[in-house]
Amino acid sequence: MHAIFLAFYRLFSELVLPRLIALTSAQQAHERVINLLAWLDGQTWLHPLLVWMHDLAFVERSLLVGGVKLRHPLILAAGFVKGDGFADEDAASQAVQRNIIPGWRSMPLLVGAVEFGSFTRYPRLGNSGVVLWRDAATHSTQNRVGLKNPGALAAAEFLAQHRRDLPPIFGINIAVSPGVTDPDQGCNEVLESLSTFLERGIRPSWFTLNLSCPNTHDDPGSHQTEDRARALCESVVALLDSYDIPLWVKISPALAAEQYRVLLSVFSETGVRAVIATNTLAAPAPDGTTAGLAGGRLHQAALEAVDLLTAEKAERGCVIDIIACGGVSDGTTYHDFANHGVKAMQYYSTFIYRGPLAAALIEQESRL
Predict the structure, then answer these.
(1) pLDDT tens-digit series, residues 346-360
(2) CA geometry: angle at 245 spanning 201 and 55, to 5°?
(3) Concatenated DSSP letters for 30-42?
(4) Count of CB atoms within 10 A of residue 57's CB?
């Protein structure tokens, strides 16, 4: 039944989905999908159908990565289930009675493990105008959303209201606030963000510290120096240790080889359990701005980062897992990373081009 279901879904993804994608712009399609997810979250009568589709599509492949037992090797990356943007905390807090994080319930039921966020300490409206683009020929996406999110406080309050319905396996991604140049302030805001979730009884399977945000005007490299990364990781690990929640860290592509080596050493020494390589790549967007590139056009840069990190990990004997992220779209790109010893990967763009069960198709192809 599993093979038959995926065979029909594959036909849909190859014959129907591309035509549907071509009907609207990337931004219009994203807004419609988010509205659909907000609706699905509240339709409890449909949730058994989502679970049924997941169970038909996926074959359980339990694995331990970054201190977390996963049911499947593919995780929907942060950036999709992250919530609405708000101008300030008052506006965000007043809105928590409605669904401010569309997809929080429906996406994990359908695709499995999801990383929520990124969330910053304070709400962000994000960038205005057109902020999403597609390159169908390379299965790439590009965005300059600008860390739009409801802020950690409102996100934590909303999730606390629905704590009983949270998925058994999920992560929460916390980003350093853009524009914060004082290291102590940045560290304090990250700790405050984490504490807002923990104090409300939210216990994700892992937290990710996002040190790289290329779709904002902040310099994503400024948080990835040895001193700043060490101070952040030491403080966060110390906080999370008492809750037995592992810390993962997400970094940029296209860093210097020495910077990757230094960062891996910092992460290993401070008790970080996994490093996600990589976030999106800053590149010129169609409108002339700079935006984060993901999908096929990111794949080579992400693969080079994984190559450097895994080689350094082996040489130093570091006890830390590498989680790949960047252009995982089929069995071939899956094995590009798996051949470096990577056991788990995050995906985003392939969700756009191959639909909600893209991860199930990739896992099936990886077994061929």
Answers:
(1) 999 999 999 999 999
(2) 85
(3) HHHHHHHHHHHHH
(4) 22
